[in-house]
Amino acid sequence: MTASALLVATLSIISFVGGVRETSKKGDFPACEQYQVESQANPPSKEPKTKKGTVVVAINTASEAELCALPGVGPARAQQIIKARQRRPFNKPADLKRVKGIGAKRIKQLEGLLDFSR
Length: 118
Description:
Blueprint: H1 3-16, H2 31-41, E1 57-58, H3 64-68, H4 75-87, H5 104-110, E2 114-115
């Protein structure tokens, strides 16, 4: 199938199902989704980077959206991290065990992505 034929077929299907509609409003998405969209367009440049180019998150100062960029961290867990660090800052990866739902496996996954110095 040529590119133009594929385009015509796609447009026909869109037309058949009722066209394109914008149903979402600003604020409909959780902070994590908004951050991921923004970070693709404007990646943060202030954070230190690892050798592989991955952004390192300052666990003791990061916003909810920045925490959500970490693997396995959603809005609820990000809030738990924020509450735990308000009680006592994290000094090493093992300190994350204070957060419900974060165990040795998750800590190993996050190693190299977290900065404990701030």
